[in-house]
Amino acid sequence: MNINDIKTVAVVGAGDMGHGIAEVALLTGYRVNLYDIKDEFVERGRDRIFSSVAKLVEKGRVPAELDEAIRNKLLKTTTDLAEAAADADLVIEAVPEIMDLKKQVFGDLDKAAPAHTLLASNTSTMSITEIASATSRQDKVFGLHYFNPAVLMRLVEVIRADGTSDETMQIGMDYAAKQRKVGVYVKKDSPGFIANRVNQAPAVLVAEIVERGEIEPEALDAFVRAMGAAMGPCELTDYVGIDIMVNVSNYFAETLGAEYGPASHLVAMQARGDLGKKTGKGYFEWIDGQRPAIDMTRATSKFNFLWPYMVQVNEASKLIQEGVVDTMNEVDLAMINGFGAPVGPVTIGRQISKWDLIDGLNFLADRYEKDIFRPTHRVLAGGHKF
Ligand SMILES: NC(=O)c1ccc[n+]([C@@H]2O[C@H](COP(=O)([O-])OP(=O)(O)OC[C@H]3O[C@@H](n4cnc5c(N)ncnc54)[C@H](O)[C@@H]3O)[C@@H](O)[C@H]2O)c1
Predict the structure, then answer these.
(1) Total-model pTM
(2) Within this chain, do residues 357 and 240 fall inside the same structural domain, yes or no?
């Protein structure tokens, strides 16, 4: 089987990611069966696709004929999983991040889909190998991890589980390329894969600084924005959702070690129901969903803008040591295309001397009592540059 055999794609779960993943496939001419558990969910996903494609037509980025084809023949919606899977060559799952739910869906898909059909998960962090264990076709199960919003973000992490075949991985990489995405080959199924794993290190650092009351969220965000970022780290946490941050951090704590876990102020915010933008309050107030006004005059002078990059480079070097990626360049590709960063952490890390990096990481590890910031063997040997 090769990429030309993929003609119909089923997307399971029509929420934020599922509708975007379906739209990307439709925009590149694939037939898509969009499935969700209730009519209202699948209809909402369909309407989001239609309105997004209409905007692209208005901007002249998509021909009107493709819009018409999507509406009239390429997109099929259903609440019957067997119907969604029946003629699919590739299924992409985007249901909530709950392992038991994903395993149940993959078990059902394994029974409903034809024998040749590839099954991919869009999980952000979880083990593809464990998800695949619910099927009798582990060679055909892999990860296809899109970034939000899927239509705009160019990265797709293509993840190899323990049983995934070379052929399946090749089709996954080719499928990413067909959609004009940047596919990054993730050689080993490891928590958070590349981009989310590398991002967890600065998330832990920032949360620790706020937890200790060293810098207030507004002062930190003002500083980071003054350095050119579109959003500060605390606002971004609110935007993503405190609950998502806590759940993801708990997953990292269980799989990689307790130091990756959530700071207690985040757990307390979750317990209070202060979940960020979606509830109107997190680190900041989000009145009517509007971005918080950050007082830029409050920018802190206590934060070194290189710290987040240092811990990211260190985390990236662990991915090489663990056999998840081959080169540091792939980490930059993932960070730039997954999050829209103008430049990757590795490129910045290469400008820092080996000794400054080692000293900086040891300082952070001592000050915040976190061994996850200690320089790796690779960094100690200067290998962060390669
Ligand atoms: N939101 C992000 O930024 C992001 C980015 C990358 C990956 N992801 C991952 O994508 C997946 C989906 O996340 P989301 O943000 O789209 O969530 P979401 O809550 O917006 O959408 C999930 C959808 O799945 C549906 N669903 C629930 N149970 C189902 C079932 N048994 N079968 C089919 N559909 C079912 C829900 O009705 C909902 O429409 C998660 O694994 C998440 O970790 C999310």
Answers:
(1) 0.95
(2) no
